[in-house]
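User: Hi! I'm working on a homework problem where we have to compare a predicted structure to a textbook description. Could you give me the structure for the chain below?
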Amino acid sequence: MTADVRRLIERCFQSGDRLYIGEAISAAGIARALALHGAALERDEVPLLIYDDTLFGDSSDGFVVTAKRLCWKNLMEHPRQLRWCDFEADEVRARDGDVQIGEHLVQIHAEDVRAQLTAFLSAAAAGERAEQGYFSPRAIVRLAQKHMAANTDVFYTPSIPARKLQKAAGVHGLRTDDVLVLYDDTLFGSAEDGFVFSQKGLHWKNFTESPSAVTWRDIDVREVAESEGGYALAELEICIAQANKYGAGAAAAVRAITWLAQEGDTARYIELTPEAPPTPEGVERCPYCRVKNPTRATYCQGCGAPV
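Assistant: Happy to help. Predicted C-alpha cells:
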C-alpha cells in the first residue's frame, strides 16, 4: 500500500514552496507532524508528504499524507484525519480556499495545491474502493447510518470518542482502526457493553455476559429480527436500551450489511427461501429476504438490498 501511495503522490503532486515530499521532508518536519498527528497514526506510519499552510513556516496548520490516511489541521481547529476507506472519490471537490471531503473541509491557501490534493484524494479513494470492492468500511458505516441515525448512542468512525473506542476495542480484542460503528449500551458511557461493527463481523457484549462475535458471512439474514430486548440472530440476542424504539433499525442495519458481505452468494439465499404467495399489485417481494416492498422502492425495506 505504501508503494501505491508513493506512486500516487509522485503522479499528483509537485514539490514546491511549503510542499515537501519523501526525502525532502526534514527531520524537524517529521517531528512536528508526529507531534500534531501522532495519536492518530499506527506505529509504522510515517509522513510521505507534508504541506505547511502557515504564514511563518512552523507547520502548525496544513496537511500530512501517510500510506493509510490524510491528516490535517485548520487554523484555530483541532487536528483531524481520514483514512482512504472513510470517503468516496465523488465526495472530494476543490473549493475557493479549501478542499471538501464529504462534510470535512481542509483549508489550503494555494490554489495549485488544492487542485493537486483533490486529484490525489479522488484517486486514493477510488483505489481503495477497487481493492475493497463494494464491501468497504465506508459502505458499512453508510448502511449503519441509514438505519440507526436516530439512536444517539451509536457512534461512527472517524468520530467515535477516544475513550469509548479504546474500551470497546479492548473488550472485543480489536484494533481501534477495526471499530467502524459502536453502540454504547452502558448507563454511564463506558462502552463496555453494547455492540461493534467491524469489516470482519458483528461483535457484542450484553450486561454481565462475556463478549461474543460472528462474521458477516456466517449470519443467516433470514434469522436477523427485532426482539423484545433489542435484536436477535436466531437464538442469540443483542441488547439495546429502548429496544422498542431502536431495535428495528439495528436489525435492519445488520441485515443490510450481511447482505452486502454475502453479495456473491445471493443465489444461495434465493434457493433456500421458500416460494412466497402472490403479492398484491403495486407490491413486490425482495428476492433475498422476501420482505414486501412497494414496486417503486429502490432498496429493500427489510435487508437493504437493491431491488
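For your comparison, note the following. The chain has a mean pLDDT of 85. The first helix runs from residue 2 to 12. Good luck with the assignment!
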